[in-house]
Write a structure and sequence with these properties.
By secondary structure, this protein is of the alpha+beta class. It has five helices and four strands; from the N terminus they run H-E-E-H-H-E-E-H-H.
């Protein structure tokens, strides 16, 4: 599966479980877990254990690439400070300098259509 990894680490080193708690944090290498060819870091043993019990519930959609870019068939590295939990899934978005361009703004205008397009492109890229 295609993934946005840096040195084998997913979510740019952020604790993916922490997004679901509404307070994203960088993970710690002391609390690392491997899943689907990627290493994920967590800010606590509790979050690591939550992830390991159900990794599919926490991994970012589209391999951790920007969701709006994926809807256009592009693999763009997102800014993990621009994110959304929708329907129980974690999405990342690109955010440019000074917040002038925030892909999340485009996503929230029509998330069902954008997600449908992104799902199609994601499936195509991983076939």
């Amino acid at each position: 599966m295609l993934q946005n990894l840096k040195n084998g680490v997913g979510a740019q080193g952020y604790d993916v479980v922490s997004f679901f708690n509404g307070n994203p944090n960088k993970g710690d290498v002391a609390y690392a877990s491997n899943y689907d060819g990627a290493k994920y870091h967590f800010s606590s043993l509790e979050n690591k254990e939550k992830f390991e019990a159900s990794p599919e519930a926490f991994v970012p959609q589209y391999g951790g690439f920007c969701a709006i870019a994926m809807s256009e068939g592009k693999e763009i590295i997102p800014n993990p400070k621009s994110w959304e939990i929708r329907d129980g899934k974690l999405y990342f978005f690109t955010r440019m300098l000074f917040g002038i361009i925030d892909a999340k703004r485009q996503w929230v205008k029509d998330p069902k259509v954008k997600r449908s397009l992104a799902d199609i492109e994601w499936s195509r890229m991983n076939s």
